[in-house]
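Exercise 7. Predict the joint structure of the components listed below.
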Amino acid sequence: MDFLRPASWEEALAAKAEHPTAVPIAGGTDVMVEINFDHRRPEYLLDLNRVGDLYEWEVGEESVRLGASVPYTRIMEDLRAELPGLALASHTVASPQIRNRGGVGGNLGTASPAGDAHPALLAAGAEVEVESAARGSRLIPIDDFYTGVKRNALQPDELIRAVHIKKADGPQQYSKVGTRNAMVIAVCAFGLALHPGTRTVRTGIGSAAPTPVRARAAEEFLNAALEEGGFWDNGKIITPSVAKQFAELCSAACNPIDDVRGTASYRRHAVGVMARRTLTWTWESYRGTRNTSEGAA
Amino acid sequence: MPANGAPTKITQGSQTKGGIGESTLRPDGTLKVTGEFAYSSDMWHEDMLWGQILRSTVAHAEIVSIDTSEALATAGVYAVMTYDDLPAEVKHYGLEIQDTPVLAHGKVRHHGEPVALVAADHPETARRAAAKIKVEYRELPVITDEASATAPGAVLVHENRTDHHAGHVPHPNIVHRQPIIRGNAAEAAERADFVVTGDYYFGMQDQAFLGPESGLAVPEEDGGVHLYIATQWLHSDLRQIAPVLGLPEDKVRMTLAGVGGAFGGREDLSMQIHACLLALRTGKPVKIVYNRFESFFGHVHRHPARLHYEHGATKDGKLTHVKCRIVLDGGAYASASPAVVGNASSLSIGPYEVDDVEIEAIALYSNNPPCGAMRGFGAVQACFAYEAQMDKLADAVGMDRVEFRQLNAMSQGTIMPTGQPVDSPAPVAELLRRVKAMPMPPERQWESSEGPDVRQLPGGLSNTTHGEGVVRGVGYAVGIKNVGFSEGFDDYSTAKVRMEVVGGEPVATVHTAMAEVGQGGVTVHAQIARTELGVAQVTIHPADTQVGSAGSTSASRQTYVTGGAVKNACELVRERVLEIGRRKFGTYHPAWATAELLLEGGKVVTDGGEVLADLVDVLEGEAVEVEEEWRHRPTEPFDLRTGQGNGHVQYSFAAHRAVVEVDTELGLVKVVELACAQDVGKALNPLSVIGQIQGGTTQGLGIAVMEEIIVDPQTAKVRNPSFTDYLLPTILDTPTIPVDVLELADEHAPYGLRGIGEAPTLSSTPAVLAAIRNATGLELPRTPVRPEHLTGKA
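Solution:
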């Protein structure tokens, strides 16, 4: 195995162009496990640890440009206000040691349906900034990014540079079911973001289908129900029947399997429960901020 | 004062600092916490090679061919070995039954069975080379449960059995069967006003010690080998290793290396023989270290069990009878299965008084992973089932569950199902009273002014509930565990104690072959020596086979048995020291001849406290050394038809109260508190006692809510051999564990102590299950309980 150590982003792109089979490694929290257990034997490892700007982020007007290697710990501590859903998801990633090393770029590169960041990215709305030496950079909408089980939309000569995530314009929540209370791979996960600006709701489901997915039918149903009832304006409590139907549609969006971590039937059920709860939490929060701002006005 | 020099009956006082009863700190504690302790996997030798084991990829198959040529041709490879390369006539080993081939011969019987060995100059080279060995298998049908094991025409896991259980088992795929019949359960059942039955399943738990199997074998000039190894019993290893190497035992020297946990998983051999074979074959030191994946295949697990119980009681709540049948899955090789059967049967009704019982326990041979010793050893599985039954029966009778247990609790004088009287304190009712009397943890601890603290809720930081669906439940359980090896086993230990003057100070050296696996024996031995010999300085000699056997570090026995051996050797040393004193100084003071003498604070003193001499002066120019075996009182085998016999040495009791909060919609569990009350006889080191109780409690929690090796029932292959999917409790899963320690002396045991390490593992699991049942109203007949069981989505 050859170990490539580019000193800059340009060198990294050149190395990837020259060795398209090279596996990028940053925190190593996924790749090293696979290598140690001999599940994977890449011909080349492309070490991105010397590419400093991958560890940086910028908070813009509309979105946060999050370097691919920014560790989860930083997201939890420094981007809680801008990216509340992703910050909650980051909390659930493995152990403190892993959160100090791992970043969203790795989650995206591996594209495992169980990656903790995906539901939060889907719910918030994000674009993945990828680049190749030959064709320069492009932005892949998160909805088009996951193409199959552990497959993504990257070309062999491309590397993930950053993720552009919309700054929260409303409450966001994230829940994950695992069979212990910390340091666990998701049995299933659910992200929900309210976007009062566009009066829409977005969702993300993890570990309950071959890829991370949005529950589009559930979103459409809820968007319509909220619009119809004037909920965004009147801030009423969402009726239990609406929440229930939303939850059922989220369950229906799943296409899970039975495995050692849980049954398909449980995953569908749990996604529904998380959908209902996160909707309640976010909506309560939305009503709270709405009432507070009205009171202040 | 006996003039003949016979040991005095004096129990030394506790005038010497750091003696028994004090919470002296572990000598290796700081090193372990700071990461500086050298574990067996840290060893290194100049010029050493790395050993690698090729394991079967299928559970049951004939080996058609093995082609090692490509592996042998790999640069850096020094040796490749298969069954055909074994050097001695003896090619099998085993704890009790020698049924385990050193390397597979003609057939593999479980997933991950060792088939071939490689030694190379780099671990990666060894691993690559092993992967190049081509093994052709012809798969056989797999035996995975009692039905497939005993079906007409079932494939025999072991053909032509000649072991000493072969004659009395009902089927060759049953390792051992132990019935226990006492009274007349059928007649007694007619007196019962209430009868409850239940079928229970206990999953396969892994010891999951953190230091994987590892060791270093160094060939020696005399043709022998020196093995540095993490194990639980050096001499048991030695007895199994030497014959297959074709060496006499004195040419196999063994030294204990740093052990990173054991819990029963190091009672059987793992890589010991393999490392020695490769070292002798290559003439170079060979190190083998398993990774976590291999570790799951490299040691036996806790027997999964199916248990059927029938309990009866009169309307005033007295137990009438118990019938039970326990089927333990021993997997492909016998390991400790026969003894586990003995425990499961003899302790199957729990710490209760019942005169009429009908008990049967069996262990299967199957193609599942081999199972053997693990903390609690057969008593754990039974406790899970009988405590569920006791709750059911209390409910049927209409009594409080704790009072029902107290009403039927055994006490000193109770006769066990085996006919053996319980002849030391058995404070079962008192332990239940104490654990029930502890204050309850406050409700809704997650609530705070800043919103819910999810760490206090089921799901923890995964943020699955802010209180929705959360219901509290409370459950109680109590258990009984035997201490020491039972059924007539000669369960002795040896200690060598030396006393001399070093650097102007009296120093005691304690040398035993006891495996320190974390239990704290090294701490306790020094405390005993200080108490008995009145010295401040005690050196604990590294454990090796240059001294006699200390028996196994298991069965909660080491403080009792090796501690007893150290105490005994110290007493003999003390007598010799006093003899020297009398010889040197007897004429200076009449008390040398008339008073009872003690060693305290580095001096010889009378029982009245008068100083007669400094130990430095007594021992000047003379060293005293004693090596002596020590035995607890003997036990008897259980009758093969009736199960009668004084089979056990001592019993150990613990009770738990579990408080859980269950997210009933998602099926997630937060164990809020696991309160424990345990009788320890005498706490030689109170801090270590608390540590053992909290550790055992947590291990019991693990099998209640998460820990399980999942074996595919179609292929008998292990599906989750990693810490990614075999989950252990993290600190966020570990509750507050308040401990109430009771010290009722057992007059038969050294200092009155009781073995403590296992009892808390028994009652913890059923207490948690009872609490979850209490919260959910579900029956939950299996453990571990998973979210799908709590939500009806299994």
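Discussion. The two ends of chain B are 73 Å apart (CA to CA).
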